[in-house]
Design brief:
The protein is an alpha/beta fold and 311 residues long. The protein has helices spanning 3-15, 18-25, 29-43, 59-87, 99-116, 129-137, 186-189, 202-214, 227-235, 282-298; strands spanning 48-51, 54-57, 91-97, 120-126, 143-147, 158-172, 183-185, 194-197, 220-224, 240-244, 255-261, 264-265, 267-275. The longest helix is centred in the first third of the chain and has 29 residues, at 59-87.
């Protein structure tokens, strides 16, 4: 099987256009069309149907797309493994993570990792949780930090290294009428003007799910992909920011309380993930193990404020 044909098929399927795929792959359109035709002849069925100017996957193409992505990921991994064998502990490690994880964990951890693997170039890509899962599946990154709730139960594609738990916190100005307790139920906090992470973030997914189970609709004032924008708005008294405990809040004058659901802290396990179909170099496995140890020493990043009268 020609890997060029596999790469062409996946690219056309993702872009839905021969012209766009030709630009991305930097080959002429007639040559690209011939590759698709050759692959269809080899397989014995059509992979695409034309809908106007777009190409739409046939049912057979839809069934094969995931397999061809896996084939390309495995081929890329074999190339990286060969490089590792030739050069030792040298290579590129691409890690996708949320902005709060980069700030509070990776910014310091990378120094420790570099002491053990000085010849590994680590590239950090900032992205929300749902995008990170897609990046892993497409083979764009080796590792992705995420909450467990983004992975369907018993999904065979992804391996994981458990990290710590992330608690949901409510942050507001000290004068905001949130109550005097160190925790607040999700059904009560949902009624306040809420400053929320974008819907692509896993922490937002957890909060929304808890609201649905509690039978309440959150009163959302603002959504953002920049967590510190939410903290600044909360500090100014505009509402209550719902943020994860891995976010640094010490620079702001805020009151921090835990969010509960059915009397228990609203929390999610955090993981570092990889695609199990893609063999990983030793330095990738070491990154996961070292990161788990580092997170144990620094979590939680943000803690609840003392209740009034406590010292």
């Amino acid at each position: 099987m020609d890997l060029r044909h596999a790469r062409t098929f996946v690219t056309v399927a993702e872009l839905g256009s021969v012209s766009k795929a030709a630009l991305r792959l930097r080959i002429a359109q007639p040559a690209l069309s011939r590759q698709i035709s050759d692959l269809e002849n080899e397989l014995g069925f059509k992979l695409f149907h034309r809908a106007g100017r777009r190409l739409v996957l046939a049912s057979e193409g839809e069934q094969l797309l995931g397999d061809y992505r896996g084939l390309l990921n495995y081929a890329k991994a074999l190339e990286e493994r060969a490089q590792e064998l030739r050069r030792g502990e040298t290579g590129m490690l691409k890690v996708a993570a949320s902005p709060q994880h980069i700030e509070s964990v990776l910014s310091q951890f990378l120094h420790k990792y570099a002491q053990h693997y000085p010849n590994v170039k680590v590239r950090i890509i900032e992205a929300p949780g749902l995008e990170i899962l897609s990046m892993l599946e497409r083979g764009e990154v080796h590792l992705g930090q995420n909450l467990k709730n983004v992975i369907p139960p018993d999904d065979p594609r992804f391996g994981s290294q458990p990290l710590e738990f992330v608690d949901m916190l409510a942050a507001c100005a000290p004068s905001f009428p949130l109550g005097k307790r160190r925790a607040i139920a999700v059904e009560r906090v949902a009624s306040f003007p809420l400053l929320m992470m974008d819907a692509q973030f896993a922490v937002r997914r957890s909060f929304d799910a808890a609201c649905r189970l509690a039978g309440v609709k959150p009163n959302i004032l603002m959504e953002s992909r920049t967590p510190h924008s939410l903290l600044a708005m909360a500090e100014a008294g505009h509402g209550v920011a719902i943020v994860p405990s891995q976010l640094q809040t010490h620079r702001y004058g805020l009151r921090i309380v835990g969010v509960t659901f059915q009397g228990r802290p609203l929390r999610e396990p955090m993981l570092i993930l990889w695609d199990k179909r893609r063999p990983q170099p030793r330095y990738v496995t070491a990154f996961c193990e070292m990161l788990a140890q580092h997170v144990k020493t620094v979590f939680p990043i943000s803690r609840r404020s003392r209740a009034p009268g406590q010292h």
